[in-house]
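Quick start: what a row looks like.
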Amino acid sequence: MNLSLYSAATGMEAQQLNLNTIANNLANVNSRGFKRSKIEFQDMLYQKPRAAGAQNGGGNQLPTGIEVGNGTRVVATSKVFSQGQLTSTGEKFDLAIQGDGFFEVQRPDGTLAYTRDASFKINATGQVVTSDGLPVLSGFQTVPPGTTSVTVAENGEVTLGSAAGSQTFRLTLTRFANPAGLESLGSNLFRETTASGTPEAGAPNEQGFGSIQQGYVETSNVKTETLIMIARFFILFCLLASPLALRAQNEAPVWVAEITERIHTHFGLEGDLHLMPVSGSNFTPKSGATVSIVEFPSGISPQILLRVRTEVTGEASQEQTVVLRANLWRSGWKLRQPSQRGDLLDTSTLEPVRIDVLRDRDALSSMPQGDYIFTRAVPPDRLLTWRDLAARPIVRRGQVVEVLAQSGPVSVSLKGMAMQDGARNETIRIRNLQSNREFTAQVSGESRAVIRL
């Protein structure tokens, strides 16, 4: 490859990584405790056809040489652990660190991680945990039931008040000789590496450790200048891309829009249907021609074979099969935070995304109505599917339910035992407690079912 092209290619690759880093910083501008990354470049080896100081005959030395560079490369991406701005929340378990230090967290596999995202919570057993449910160590003790007040001083001294008295303990922070050497794990967590050095624990507000600010969270340390630069880049991109998009839209055949509308109406589709002839299609109606559908397809799929008729004034009509690429766009959903099996679906945690339901057939394309639980663990930012959810059972196997048998105006109630779990409007098997015979009934409410004769 020509050296100039190769050098330019290394620069483009390096700048692409730089742009990726900046974009990731921008995406996490609202992530609590997030530390921005910076990228470092280094020039590559040089070709030296002539070295400086070489002899040039007659005892003369060359004052300068010839050095031709081979481009640039990325040598490091490191975290910048500068202080983020503290924002008041008033929450008693929001404990921002002002200065040096991390909180210690225990991961599910028992290993330790470290975080500055100190928006903590209390779980069902009174243990202090992160937003992902990971236990927070750092000297935290279990918060007993009946605790009425929690006070955390800048030096990490915690006082739990209750009607029975008060309990006091002290928190610790952890720091590293080279925090830029920590490994990023995601979820605002870091892990120790040989480059970071071993963790050093100490008391807050002593020996150079930071202080703890109760009722505050530390925001991202992404600089405003970065946002401005990205905004300018985005505006420039839109200005350049918009003419291309308009051109592509204008190049779409007029007859396709008419066909699209007819198919959309015929099948009663929900969403935005987009049709386009596949690449290489030789179907090009003459100007002024009328294109009609001879036979509708049996259904909608990513690729449609459509029989059409072309009619031009003064000419015989022609029939031809056209291959169309189809997209049916609707709103899908993804989670903002992880969920575990058995968790109740909270629709406020769903984020809408645009999906093609012809290709993402299992995707959840409508907002769930009613109570649903997760059938398996779902990570954040993954497209939610119907396989991930099941209606929440309101009748449990082995539970005694009241069954109402209705036949017109006459109704009879009896007691039975549910032989399987059932959600609202689901049909389940029930055993009569007196006759011990089984029958089926429809779940109508909590501990209730109905038989319509």
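That is the whole record. The longest strand covers residues 318-335. The two ends are 83 Å apart (CA to CA).
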